[in-house]
């Protein structure tokens, strides 16, 4: 197992030196790195939705034939393609970036399968830059048999190619006995699946996978951060839909003020220990090469430094400990360090 896990990505079919360099930008150097490069989200391409059943805001897969195509140049070039399906409803596909070859492929009568978000347009529902592929003939074409993962990627590496590389790496997963780290009795006591089963599930979830319950959200944080929040905290942070699923985040009381305001706490008369942390969104953000994400992570770290400096200025005698890119529940993500600092602080009070 060690040899398989630690083998360079270039040992996988189709991964040459150039692709290996690109994968390296994501921190993917060995086969094991690909096993643990987890999806950011999933797309449901396991069914085709009739155009008449689409609602604004729905992300769905539809299928139809091109009934009209028009190129326009008002303000900016754009391509508009109208498709019609068996429900006798029309959906407009709008593209702002296209070329002549693409236009030629979308002739009237062409059968398309499209995936995207439906939204209100001037002439009804439309999808802007949907993903699509042409279908040949009239025979039914099978849909995906599992949810489609969407992975963190980098410039020059498309999803399809990255999915293919990860799939080839998963084919080299060792058996449970070779891969597992947690003893079987402990897994059974806590109702944990094997590591192999968990990896295959997260990379290849079935159509009925539980992706929206609070239990699924807790498991997501376990995979992302190595630990999870108590469910009560998650329910405090996230709203609940009428059917009990996880809803949008609740606004944090005073959250915007906390981010904008540096507090000095000069009024605390007793000895004080401050544990200040900047929250990490996860490894995907820490290793990202996206300039926007890097700038955001730097801003979070900068806020932590300013807050720590302000506390020292307001309370010169305070003990201030910084945990860079830890978590809201800093005790869970940095348990050993927190206990050490608490013991040291308490010892100084004697």
- Unreliable residue runs: 254-258
The quaternary structure here is single chain
Rounded to the nearest angstrom, the distance between the terminal CA atoms is 52 Å
Characterize the overall form. globular
* Largest sheet properties: 7 strands, mixed
Please compute the radius of gyration using only Cα atoms: 25 Å
By secondary-structure content and strand pairing, the structural class works out as: alpha+beta
Strand order of the largest sheet: 6-7-4-3-2-5-8
Helix segment tally: 15
Q: Level of helix content?
A: 25-40%
Summed over residues and divided by their number, the pLDDT gives a mean of 83
Number of strands: 13
How much β-strand is present in the residues? 15-25%
What's the structural blueprint in terms of helices and strands?
Layout: H1 2-6, H2 17-24, H3 31-35, E1 41-43, E2 59-72, E3 78-84, E4 90-95, H4 100-105, E5 111-117, E6 119-121, E7 124-128, E8 131-135, E9 148-150, H5 159-170, H6 176-179, H7 184-189, H8 195-203, H9 214-225, H10 231-237, E10 238-240, E11 246-249, H11 255-260, E12 273-279, H12 283-286, H13 291-314, E13 319-326, H14 330-333, H15 335-348
Parallel strand pairs: 4-7, 12-13
Antiparallel strand pairs: 1-9, 2-3, 2-5, 3-4, 5-8, 6-7, 10-11
Descriptive notes:
The chain is of the alpha+beta class. The chain is built from 15 helices and 13 strands. The chain has a 7-stranded mixed sheet with strand order 6-7-4-3-2-5-8, with no helix packed on it. A two-stranded antiparallel ribbon has the order 1-9. A two-stranded antiparallel ribbon has the order 10-11. Strand 6 and strand 7 (124-128) form a beta hairpin. The chain is globular. It starts with a helix and ends with a helix.
